[in-house]
Design a protein that fits this description.
The complex is a heterodimer of chains A (112) and B (114). Chain A is mostly beta strands and 112 residues long. Chain A has no helices and eleven strands. Chain A is globular. The relative contact order of chain A is 0.34. Chain B has 114 residues and is mostly beta strands. Helices cover 0% and strands 54% of the residues of chain B. Classes of the chains: A mainly beta (112), B mainly beta (114). Chains A and B meet through strand 5 and strand 10 of A and strand 4, strand 5 and strand 10 of B.
């Protein structure tokens, strides 16, 4: 959706480096989510947040961290502890946690 | 936790024919089932969803059916067109549980041949 902006579109990480993926929404949505998509596979939930200053681990949170200091922003940091970070990362938001989720255009992360 | 299986993994149909994709889920408490369409390199787009209080929902050429007893749900696309070619994902969640965490199936690559 036009209201969910992910940046950058492409990102390269060096060994031992932390990188941060941006997700911003201007839809006034309460809930935000981060998913990881590997080639030819479905999406897996990394972290989610239902409200500002609160977030929960998803199914594959190891090696990732998030923050939710503002309602419109939910950045994801891929730390050096994530040994296989190459993937397509998708951010989603929903008006409330019981409403449909809509996705941003994604960030493709690769290792140099 | 929830586990969602999706079949087939690839589906080739002739333009104008119907396409059917099936998903099964493991958590009997799941009550929300969305379907997403993803074109190559792009974001998934919600095309239809169904909640457990209904058995079928239609939107033009797309329909979804839900069988709660058997724990499976299906996407039906009628009169397929080349622009229907994409990867389709089903998902399941408990809407009223914390976070409405979606568990996705592995995807079905649909190719509509002109």
């Amino acid at each position: 959706d036009g209201g969910i902006t992910q940046s950058p579109k492409y990102l390269f990480r060096k060994e031992g480096q932390n990188v941060t993926l941006s997700c911003e929404q201007n839809l006034n949505h309460d809930a935000m989510y981060w998913y990881r998509q590997d080639p030819g596979q479905g999406l897996r939930l990394i972290y989610y947040s239902q409200i500002v200053n609160d977030f929960q681990k998803g199914d594959i949170a190891e090696g990732y961290s998030v923050s939710r200091e503002k309602k419109e922003s939910f950045p994801l940091t891929v730390t050096s502890a994530q040994k296989n970070p190459t993937a397509f990362y998708l951010c989603a938001s929903a008006a409330y946690s019981n409403q449909p989720q809509h996705f941003g255009d994604g960030t493709r992360l690769s290792i140099l | 936790g929830e586990n969602v299986e999706q079949h087939p993994s690839t589906l080739s149909v002739q333009e104008g024919d119907s396409a059917v994709i099936k998903c099964t889920y493991s958590d009997s408490a799941s009550n929300y089932f969305p379907w997403y369409k993803q074109e190559l390199g792009k974001r998934p787009q919600l095309i239809i969803d169904i909640r457990s209080n209904v058995g079928e929902k239609k939107d033009q050429r797309i329909a979804v059916t839900l069988n709660k007893t058997a724990k499976h749900f299906s996407l039906h696309i009628t009169e397929t067109q080349p622009e229907d070619s994409a990867v389709y994902f089903c998902a399941a969640s408990r809407v009223k549980a914390a976070g409405n965490k979606l568990t996705f199936g592995g995807g079905t690559r649909v190719l509509v041949k002109p």
